[in-house]
From TrEMBL:
<protein>
    <submittedName>
        <fullName>Uncharacterized protein</fullName>
    </submittedName>
</protein>
<keyword id="KW-0560">Oxidoreductase</keyword>
<dbReference type="InterPro" id="IPR036291">
    <property type="entry name" value="NAD(P)-bd_dom_sf"/>
</dbReference>
<dbReference type="Pfam" id="PF00106">
    <property type="entry name" value="adh_short"/>
</dbReference>
<dbReference type="GO" id="GO:0016491">
    <property type="term" value="F:oxidoreductase activity"/>
</dbReference>
<dbReference type="InterPro" id="IPR002347">
    <property type="entry name" value="SDR_fam"/>
</dbReference>
<comment type="similarity">
    <text>Belongs to the short-chain dehydrogenases/reductases (SDR) family.</text>
</comment>
Length: 271
């Protein structure tokens, strides 16, 4: 029975998806998040529904943490596994990681790549789903400034870092044609992502009341997970909710793809 690894499992979409899969996933749910207490509570809820879940506390806010987490998962995962990259950060201010890199660039882009590198090396991962954002079309990557957040914007940085990971997953899919991969916009979902203090945060919370509940999104992702295949070998297709769409023009721009690829390779060369 195949495993399913889910990052960002303790809140929002990840929490709802874990519960949605509790009675439908034949194998184990390997649930990844920083908050051990919330993970343990989630595991208990899943097991009460007859599912089998394992809490895997881990931190994607540094490359070292991502590497250690990936190594632990590689020792645990069984053949035929699915990996869902769901953890993400919508930053409100520029914060640098211990490596001197902008936090969202690490959490949304570099750390998931480091995490999955060890897992792909085992040959045990059959499918990878990247929960992205429709806003990738607004991304604008600057190789000299984006990694350290010198071009930081409370909106654009989120879009750009999500774009970077989407482009990287297209390269990963090309390098691993034996693996099925997909990148998707999950919907406009009412979660804590992008929460802000002050008047702007209050206004955003009002707007979010009209967005769909995480449980609605989780049901959608569950249906996608049960598809026989997502993409042709060597490709990662782009879904907007459940419908396949052409990649946004910025994701087809060869200069952007090359800049992201070269910058990523350089930053991860010694990790």
């Amino acid at each position: 029975m195949a495993d399913l690894i889910l990052t960002g499992a303790s809140r929002g979409i990840g929490h709802a998806l874990s519960l949605s899969l509790a009675g439908r996933q034949e194998g184990r749910l390997l649930l990844v998040a920083r908050d051990r207490a919330r993970l343990d509570a989630l595991v208990t809820s899943i097991e009460q529904q007859g599912g089998h879940a394992i809490a895997v506390p881990g931190d994607l806010s540094s490359l070292a943490g991502a590497r250690e987490l990936g190594e632990r998962l590689a020792r645990t995962v069984r053949p035929g596994a699915t990996l869902i990259h769901n953890a993400g950060l919508w930053p409100s201010r520029r914060v640098l990681t211990p490596e001197g890199l902008e936090a969202a660039f690490v959490i949304n882009h570099l750390a998931p790549l480091v995490l999955q590198r060890g897992l792909l090396g085992t040959g045990h991962v059959r499918r990878v789903m990247a929960v992205s954002a429709g806003l990738i079309f607004k991304g604008r990557f600057d190789a000299a400034r984006t990694p350290t957040g010198e071009d930081f914007s409370s909106i654009r940085t989120y879009c750009t870092t999500k774009l970077c990971f989407a482009l990287a997953m297209r390269d990963v899919a090309a390098a691993h044609p034996e693996m099925d991969a997909v990148v998707l916009h999950p919907g406009v979902v009412r979660t804590d992502l992008g929460a802000r203090p002050g008047p702007l945060g209050w206004l955003l919370s009002l707007v979010k009341r009209g967005w769909e509940a995480p449980e609605v999104c989780a049901a959608r992702l569950t249906r996608i997970l049960h598809r026989e295949r997502w993409s042709p070998p060597g490709e990662a297709r782009w879904l907007v909710e459940e419908a396949e769409q052409p990649w946004p023009p910025i994701a087809e721009d060869e200069a952007t793809r090359r800049a992201v690829r070269e910058t990523t390779d350089r930053l991860l060369a010694s990790v």
